[in-house]
Amino acid sequence: MLHRLYAPASTGLFICGAIAAIGSLSGYFNSRLEYCDAATSPCTRVAISIDVAPPQTAQDAIVLPGNGKMRLSLGLVAIALLAGGYVVSGLEVEKLSAIARQEEIDAELEEKRQAIVADEEEKKLVLAADIRYKDFEQELLDGYALLLLENNPELAEQILADKPLAQIEQTVTATATIEAASTANAQDSPDTVQDTISPIVVDTTALSSLIAAGTRAIDGLIDTSQSLIFLGTPGAGKSVSLGVVVGRKKKRVGDRLRLYAIAMKNDGFSGAVVARLNADSNQCYDILLEVITELRKRAAMSKSERGEYCDENPVILILDDFMSQQKLLSSSLSKKIVRYPEESGAYQKISLGDAFNAAMAEIIFNGRELNVAGYVGTQSSNIDDLKFLSSKGGRAGVILMYQAFRNVTKNQGNYEIISQAIANQHVIADVKERERMRGVFPQAKALSVQEQRPMILSSNADTGEFILGIVPDMRDEYREYERLYNGADDEVANFAWTIRKVSQFYPDTTAESLFSEICNRVNDGMSQREIIRTVLKCGENKQHPTRSYSVHGKTLFNWLVENYDNGELEAMLKNDGNQ
Fold first, then answer.
1. Which residue in 374, 481, 482, 548 could disulfide with 552, CB within 3.0 to 4.6 Å?
2. How far is the CA of 169 from the CAs of 149, 165, 221, 559, in angstroms?
3. In the predicted model, is pLDDT for residue 289 greater than 70?
4. Topology annotation, domain 204-477
């Protein structure tokens, strides 16, 4: 700021110095001769310079002494001012030169930074493409192995005679793996998780250990006040894991837990105050402001008062489907401007998207001690997409929960998000820890596919290490929390044609037992049409409240499959022509 005063200061000094110099040289302070000129004006005295000869008619001439000291002083002042102006102008020139040099250095550094970023992005793309290719290659080889068994029934019979059914998939996978290893021509990248080099031997001990690790990873989230980031592809079970964590907290703390949620779908989140960004962005911003206001209120409390209050009143803000929210904030809501409060009480006008990121960053960095946490569910595999975690300190302030799942029935999903996380030094900084995860990953992937349960990678281990395991089946627990806190009760909440309870239709049974009976009939070879007519009694008994086969029967059947099936029944009914 000081260099901005150099130019006006030097100009002022030069002007004052010039005035002083003119005054000292003007002769005003020299000795003068005063006289009366009888020829012109006898009564008026005239003063002239001592160096000028008076006219012959001059009378009563008197010499008036000059003020040499004043002239000398003005001369010295003029010299000082001019010298000061010169010095200040020199400082201005030097400062401008320094600024120009700094700008050149900044431009050069920015150019180098852009080059480094571009190089890193290129490496990421190459690594991601290599991982996707390897997953595709593995799936292709698995398909060839299964086709070989289908075309050679005698081979399948021989395998069945020698091994239990659970080991058949292991044999097929091992065969495909050996073939992949024999046809590989290039060395794999050291940062890529390898899970296809050697056959994976699956054992019950490993399965129990991995499920225990997954259970420990979920259990470790209940008491923490840190913010949680759930990362995973669609269908990987993020919503169930998040719902169970929130449900357990709600069950433990009760109504003292203040839950808020900003989502894209009409979900309950264990009784949270919910707003949908794609329906009412103003309501979403109100929720954001309420959480930030509460956080700052806690920060302003005295330490003695703050500790007890925060411990007794936890706050959680859930941002579900965060990447879809970000796309909406950067497109149709990009021009929405809000008044975001500063801690001083002033307001600044920023975009709604910047307000989301600013609020989340404040929660991440300051919320842990104040018991205010953010739970974010995102489909992105890149942690850099979360702008509020742009720094290393931001990533250290949250618990990262990666989930991946390959649904063999629907032929969708992969484990790329976890393999990339294990290979990413920005996620797992320790080299030995990354190597340890690489050793566990192939076995965990094989068991995840075999058991049809999601794989989980968590940064919440007590020892500072990561946890890699298999998520236990928590769907019943998740549905129970939905029933308890969202008012689902035992009624068929998703029926379009009724809101009455299942017990009103089938007074001697429950929805679970109905589904169990359906599974038994499918195993007996009964078609879906016959199940609907006999087990559900739709289309036969005209007095039954679900008498319509096409409307009531199919709706009830599909609802039971969607809410109680783990994928097995859907696979058995896949080729049913009546479905």
1. 548
2. 11, 8, 34, 31
3. yes
4. Rossmann fold (3.40.50)
